[in-house]
Amino acid sequence: MSHFKSSQIEANILFFYRQRVMVVRLVMEGDLGKEAASMVNVCRQTVSHSVSLFNEGGLDLSSGFRPRTRAVSH
After folding, report:
1. One Pfam match, by short name (predicted)?
2. Is the pTM of this model over 0.85?
């Protein structure tokens, strides 16, 4: 894996982590799940899942995040 691809993957993971933290914060401040989802541009299920992970012990960079890979045909 080239350095660029590795850096891009790390940036994507960090982006998704920040989204999860933001939706948890919005819900804790009183926003509804669907409102938080709209503000952060994620689906409501992502909000629900992120809040559940947080309530179970917090969020970390690996909790519930499984990057999808695509098969490459040559």
Report:
1. HTH_29
2. no
